[in-house]
Amino acid sequence: MAITNRENGQYNARITWFLVLSCAVAAAGGLIFGYDLGISGGVSSMDNFLKKFFPEVSKKLKEDSKTSNYCKFNSLLLTFFTSSLYMAGLVASLCASPITRAFGRKSSILLGGAAFLIGSAIGGAACNVFMLIVGRLLLGVGIGFANQSVPLYLSEMAPPKNRGAFSSAFSFCIGFGVALANLINYAATKIKGGWGWRISLAMAAAPASILTLGAIFLPDTPNSLIQHSKNHEKAKRVLQQVRGVDNVQVELDDLVQASNISRSIKHPFQDIRKRKYRPQFIMSIAIPFCQQVTGIHVITFYAPLLFRTIGFGERASLISAIVVGAAKCGAIFLMSYIVDKNGRKILFILGGILMLVCQLLIGGIMAAKLGDHGHLSNAYAFLVLILVCIYVAGFGLSWGPLGWLVTSEIFSLEIRSAAQSIRVSVDFLFFFLGAQNFLTMLCHFKAGIFFFFAGWLALMTVFVYLLLPETKNLPIERMDTIWREHWFWKRFVLDDEEKLENKAQDI
């Protein structure tokens, strides 16, 4: 395919096996993230795991009939088991920024995979809560490095016209990792002796091995090679390999120009706060914040606990979580086909509306039919399951993959690594807050928690409609034009001379 940039030059490109395999290996960074999301909630619902590490929760679940349905899993230690990973990821993502900028995307991916591999071994061998937490912290370091570098890698390697499809591979792997984790959790419950949770935690080493070993053979992106090594010839050879053509001069010139601007930025974390980067700085905070307050991630890694709350048994709750994970994967797969044709913005809006309706319906059913000590009938329980599936499908069509795609493509090269670190750090900060407080919120808000998330979804959809410009098919190193042409953001990024020119053209 010939991909034309906005100045009528040619970005010559074909979809090559070299490109596909490189992106597939890098996307395994999403697999380790998704696996952890799925596995932590699953093992937290296993009776033998709770009995060994969190006996007060196990006792409350089995023997306490006076505690509200919404409060039986309310334990600060249990939630810290989950949330400690995200605090470690927050710190790691900030540390990853200078490494990614100085040594390339490949180095951060390799470090992330290695840390996750060690953490999975410690978690599987855990004898006490201390070992569990240490393992979780190392998993967090791995995910912090991977989440900072993998989305950048995919966006920089992909041709502009297919960037949405390639970048969505990261989110697809997150969804696939969740589904895979739930399958393993279900199989682990059938192991006699009650030690199946060790298999669940230790199997995180499998996707980590794929990422770590694969990263050794990955090429770095042409953008990164030019930025940190200034080796234009090597960058040109890699660009020819990933594009499948010899004539890549127009794209290479754009990369060199962007790199020259990038080298003038000595302190990207300070420069990103400048007025001309204001829209990118705001988006690096607003998009991950909005992604978290959809409620998707707390529902994802607490899905088995949620289904046990409404009356499903241990294995039935895990089967339900598998169904939810499959729905999410299918939606992300569909999104990858249509995102480059229909654009990002319309999918954000449609997905937001779909999730909003589902949250309101789930909250209504839980409030009217479950109560503090009630029990949902099979019909209502399966209706909630169907609504949760539709909800995660809406997320898979919109805020899930697009939250990573858009933030990986809108940043200028000179601030890209810093902006992505801020994006990932904000993500982990609200991951931590959500994971640490969700069970307490569920206990106090009860069914109202679904209305809480629904309110945020309404605000997010309006935010996207008004303030997020469309980015489809635009080369990544020419992305600054979307801010210059936007009705609101142009007041920040245009200098005085450009503003006068625009006024003269309007007259």
From TrEMBL:
Keyword Nucleus appears in the UniProt entry: no
Entries under Pfam families matching the protein: Sugar_tr (PF00083)
CDD domains: MFS_STP
Membrane protein topology class: Multi-pass membrane protein
Main location: membrane
Membrane-spanning residues: 15-35, 76-97, 109-131, 137-154, 166-189, 195-218, 281-305, 317-339, 346-368, 380-404, 424-442, 448-468
Record keywords: Membrane, Sugar transport, Symport, Transmembrane, Transmembrane helix, Transport
SUPFAM superfamilies recorded: MFS general substrate transporter
Major facilitator superfamily (MFS) profile domain mapped to chain residues: 22-472
GO CC annotations on file: membrane
Localization in the cell: Membrane
Family (UniProt): Belongs to the major facilitator superfamily. Phosphate:H(+) symporter (TC 2.A.1.9) family.
GO molecular function terms noted in the UniProt entry: symporter activity
UniProt key word Transmembrane helix: yes
Protein's UniProt name: Major facilitator superfamily (MFS) profile domain-containing protein
